[in-house]
């Protein structure tokens, strides 16, 4: 299935392979396993040799030029770029908004009582 492509080059009997896969395998489970493997590779390369990381990035770039099932799975397995730092920014923005609304309410309440 990693050779599957809607357009472009693929294995000659890919339609039969795909039909058999659909009959006999759980596609969601398969995609989760492949995504986990890709995530593990990304994690391993993220902290290691920059040359390996570059090779991996170039391979994914090359793969994305075609319409390959594997490139779809690789894109879906990308870690979220929104980590703790992003969450803290959102929390801070929400707190500031809350404070502004609270101050506005208090200000108008103060004006009415004067």
Note the topology.
Blueprint: H1 14-24, H2 27-46, H3 50-63, H4 69-76, H5 84-112
Number of strands: 0
Average pLDDT, to the nearest integer? Answer: 81
Q: What percent strand?
A: under 5%
Overall number of structural domains: 2
Oligomeric state of the chains present here? single chain
The global form is: elongated
**Major beta sheet summary:** none
Regions with pLDDT < 50 over 5+ consecutive residues? Answer: none
What does this structure look like?
- By secondary structure, the chain is an all-alpha fold.
- The chain has two domains: 1-79, no CATH class; 81-114.
- It contains five helices and no strands.
- It has helices at residues 14-24, 27-46, 50-63, 69-76, 84-112.
- The chain is elongated and about 85 Å long.
- 2% of the residues are buried.
- The model has no long low-confidence stretch (mean pLDDT 81).
